[in-house]
Amino acid sequence: MAVSGTRRSPFFPDVPTLSEAGIKGVELGNWFGLFAPAATPAEVVARLGREVAKSVALPDVRQRYAELGVEPVAQDSTALRKTVADKTKLLSALIRDPRIAVD
């Protein structure tokens, strides 16, 4: 058993990451993003990001996430864009891996 994120889960601190278990290059932690249409003004996107960051920092919101086994992390739009690109690249490579078969 292992967690697929880049670091151990605070909810399961004794469970190693895939990397620690010897499976390198597959960091797939769960993530969620808030997306807006491409034409949304930058100042609106920035404000949405700030408001989301404020909300996930609230103690009652963090508590509810913890009850669900989730550790919220707020990112700005640049960081989210990089996350999407990185995960798309990783998952595309895994899907194309000739050693993976569907039974």
From TrEMBL:
It holds the Pfam family TctC. InterPro entries: BUG, Bug_dom1. Gene3D superfamilies: Bordetella uptake gene, domain 1 (3.40.190.150), Periplasmic binding protein-like II (3.40.190.10). Belongs to the UPF0065 (bug) family. This is Tripartite tricarboxylate transporter substrate-binding protein. It comes from Azohydromonas lata.
